[in-house]
């Protein structure tokens, strides 16, 4: 996250932060495939549940840290301007689809579809 202590007060007063909302912290937990595959199904379920909870906790921490850094930066004199998300989405759209297509993983495609559905339904 952007930290106000990295800039002088005068620099912060001239600083304009553009917030697009496109950068998202994503907590990911990795397991060694050979280790995971040797686990009993009920043990895999425990690992899966713990990983989901840990990733969600990480995402909450990251969001809180980002919000706090933004508040401190604005308090030091920076100005916040929200920008359109459309150019970001247009630039990412083809790349994301190409990348997901190379993964040969239904889960990745399902996540991309869910993101597109949320964007369409949410109008964001």
Determine the fraction of residues in helical runs and give it as a percent range: 55-70%
Instruction: State the secondary-structure class.
Output: mainly alpha
Head-to-tail CA distance between termini:
23 Å
The succession of helices and strands, N to C, reads: HEHHEHH
The largest sheet has its strands arranged as: 1-2
| Amount of beta strand | 5-15%
Largest sheet: 2 strands, parallel
Mean of residue pLDDT?
Answer: 75
Query: How many strand units?
Result: 2
Low-confidence stretches: none
Describe this structure in words.
With 124 residues, this protein is mainly alpha-helical. It contains 5 helices and 2 strands, in the order H-E-H-H-E-H-H. The protein has a two-stranded parallel ribbon with strand order 1-2. The protein is flat.
Give the secondary structure arrangement, pairings included:
Blueprint: H1 9-14, E1 16-19, H2 33-38, H3 41-75, E2 79-82, H4 86-103, H5 106-122
Parallel strand pairs: 1-2
